[in-house]
Design brief:
The protein starts with 7 loop residues before the first helix and ends with a helix. The longest helix has 28 residues. Helix content is about 65%, strand content about 0%. It holds the Pfam family TPR_SYO1. Keywords: Coiled coil. One of its GO terms (molecular function) is unfolded protein binding. Belongs to the nuclear import and ribosome assembly adapter family.
């Protein structure tokens, strides 16, 4: 059973702030749902026109048109708006360059992977690299002598730098190829200069720099080594993470500005990414998790009230219809690209607050993921992989890390019952969906940014719960295991969440699917911790069986089988035991047909049946004796052997799976002999 360790190949993605996955592929569906078709061609024409004011207007118009509108964004993308905007980055008019950069940044944030990949393929990095020294020089002049700095210095340092940095961090999450290209720019000194000068700058570019650092140091040795090799950088990050939310002498900073908290959260995340800190140094004695992360992040996740935020967002969206719309204004009076109504500004603030909570949860998931991990889908010791297998696994796309978790020097405090009691109630609250948490079927949300932020919180909170209870199952805590009533409460809360999420999946419902995939893992962890004392309803068992049958990936099927295995071991649930065992038997091969399940599911099912009926004195063992299960197991042996033999050791994870399969195969033979001997004795 694995934790939500995100592998390198899975980390490099920029989630879409305004998804278009509810739309069928192609431009036709976007054209039929966009209300701004007629505006697109004039924008593209003006962007390439001879008049600088027209080019500037066109760049601004892109930002305005794509706002919360995935259909229009797709149509613009179909007209090569990305290529046109990249061309404008070399415009001879600074104002055009500034607005083009802002539009590209907005496209990155809203459009995610596809648009970022297009920008990378169209060589945007070549141009962005030229901006870094220019911004650095202007920043130095501005900090040393603000009055003698160029007239546009403030906008270059604030708006332009913010847009360039944000685009870079979005691009870095696009692919490993893009990340390597960005690594070659050596951005760390440039980004740290903003954090070091935070007291003299507004918060926006500082926050963008911190976000970029957080992304770049995530499982990226090049950036991590560059950062941790400089004692001043580490001292700066520690100072931010440990500081109270005071504005100091910072310009434009309000003590109540939530972005100051976000900056601290990001700094703690960066410090975790580069841990362990180099020794000997004062910083190396700091326990990042215990002394910084947990005390900072726990209040962040416990203070948010998602239903209230969703309700307020709904009110604001309803009120937007009463405010004048940008596209209805005269094009002669070009609005600024950052022109926002009061409702839009408040919606952005709500979204920013939600993103901070999601970030805190993401870091907490990492805190929990550093604890011991059982191997390959069963309770047991973790096996160390050979070096060549480690290399194979590094490219594996599976989210669940079923090999050993690297010891990164963090204490296992999240397995402590006191820590559990402080984290779990908040996490249970954060997995409960609101009215805006997921888009309606086959259409978009009334406010996509709020919906994507809410769903990200639910998923991250579920990931935290997954890792917490896996950790407890791996390193049992007697006081936790003895609290059967507490386990029942968590079990019911998780089911309540999944019940609201629902099983109606389809276009645009990818986040609902993620909730179920992670949620089943949480159910398995809970069933492991309270095995023998936790029972399930008939409906819950049937839901797990149906979900297992309908799952398209082996990992999810294994989690379902693992949960069912534990639930079958509640001594008094003889009927439930029979239902589960009969289902597991359907996954076995027969002499005339192979298993209908994949090999991982088959191995898990065989292991489950052995575990369930390993103690013949339990009340539910009557099902084994009266159901003819021994004969069914005997008939499956030969095809189980063949299935295990077909496992390719050369595939990622294949060596470990083959080893586990051979172990379960041998256990099956031994179990059959044991039960036969019992029959002879009786």
């Amino acid at each position: 059973m694995g934790k939500s360790q995100k592998k390198k190949s899975m980390r490099r993605h920029n989630p879409m702030r305004v998804p278009d996955s509810h739309l069928p592929k192609g431009l036709a569906s976007a054209s039929s749902t966009s209300t701004k078709n007629e505006a697109i061609l004039p924008i593209i024409q003006k962007m390439e026109g001879p008049d600088a004011s027209d080019r500037k207007w066109a760049c601004v118009a892109v930002s305005n048109l794509i706002q919360n509108d995935s259909s229009t964004r797709r149509l613009l993308q179909g007209k090569n708006v990305v290529g046109a905007l990249i061309t404008r980055l070399t415009d001879n008019e600074d104002e055009v360059v500034l607005e083009a950069m802002g539009a590209l940044r907005n496209l990155c944030i809203d459009g995610g992977y596809d648009i970022c990949a297009e920008m990378y393929n169209k060589n945007i990095l070549t141009i962005l690299k030229t901006f870094i020294p220019k911004i650095s020089n202007i920043l130095s002049q501005y900090l040393e002598a603000p009055k003698t700095a160029p007239a546009n210095a403030q906008r270059l340092v604030y708006d332009f730098a913010d847009n360039v940095i944000t685009t870079l961090w979005c691009l870095s999450e696009t692919s490993n190829k893009a990340l390597n290209a960005i690594n070659s720019i050596n951005l760390i000194p440039f980004l740290m200069s903003f954090l070091a000068s935070r007291d003299k700058l507004t918060i926006a570019p500082v926050l963008a720099a911190a976000q970029c650092l957080y992304v770049l140091t995530d499982d990226n040795d090049s950036a991590s080594v560059s950062l941790k090799s400089n004692a001043e950088y580490i001292s700066c990050l520690l100072s931010i993470a440990q500081s109270p939310d005071q504005p100091a002498n910072g310009k434009g900073k309000d003590i109540n500005d939530h972005r100051l908290i976000t900056l601290r959260v990001l700094s703690s995340g960066i410090l975790r990414n580069i841990s362990p800190l180099p020794q000997p140094s004062a910083a190396s004695i700091v326990d990042i998790d215990k002394d910084i992360a947990l005390p900072l992040l726990q209040p962040v996740i416990s203070s948010v009230k998602l239903p209230e935020i969703a309700s307020r967002a709904q009110q604001l969206v309803d009120g937007l219809s009463l405010e004048p719309q940008i596209e209805k204004m005269s094009l002669k009076n070009t609005p600024k690209s950052d022109h926002k109504s009061s409702s839009e500004l408040e919606l952005e603030q709500l979204e920013a607050n939600l993103r901070t909570v999601q970030l805190a949860l993401e870091i907490l998931t990492g805190v929990c993921a550093t604890l011991p991990d059982p191997s390959a889908g069963i309770e047991g010791e973790t096996e160390i992989e050979d070096e060549d297998e480690d290399e194979d696994m590094a490219d594996d796309d599976e989210v669940m890390d079923e090999t050993n978790i690297e010891d990164r020097g963090h204490n296992n405090d999240s397995a402590n019952p006191t820590v559990l009691s402080s984290l779990v109630p908040s996490l249970l609250s954060l997995i409960q969906p609101t009215s805006l948490s997921f888009p309606p079927l086959a259409t978009s949300s009334i406010h996509p940014p709020t919906t994507t932020a809410l769903s990200a919180i639910h998923i991250s909170a579920m990931e935290c719960l997954n890792n917490i209870f896996l950790s407890v199952a791996t390193s049992p805590s007697p006081s936790v295991s003895a609290d059967a009533e507490g386990g029942r409460k968590v079990w019911n809360e998780v089911w309540a969440s999944l019940g609201v999420v629902g099983t109606e999946l389809g276009l645009g419902q990818e986040r609902r699917k993620e909730m179920w995939e992670i949620g089943v893992g949480v159910l398995w962890g809970l069933a492991l911790v309270w095995k023998g004392t936790l029972s399930a309803t008939e409906e819950q068992i049937q839901v797990l069986i149906r979900y297992c049958d309908g799952a398209s990936d082996e990992i999810t099927k294994v989690k379902c089988i693992g949960a069912l295995e534990c639930l079958a071991q509640y001594p008094q649930s003889i009927t439930s035991n029979q239902v589960i065992a009969n289902y597991l038997l359907t996954l076995l091969p027969t002499p005339s047909s192979p298993s209908p399940a994949g090999v991982e599911s088959l191995i898990q099912a065989v292991s489950a049946l052995i575990d369930i009926y390993s103690d013949e004195t339990l009340p539910y063992d009557i099902n084994f004796r009266q159901g003819g299960m021994l004969q069914t197991l005997v008939a499956s042996v030969e095809n189980v052997r063949k299935a295990v033999k077909r496992i390719d050791r050369k595939k990622p994870g294949g060596k470990d799976l083959r080893r586990r399969g051979e172990e379960i195969r041998d256990n099956l033979v031994a179990f059959i002999q044991y039960r036969r001997n019992l029959g002879l004795q009786n």
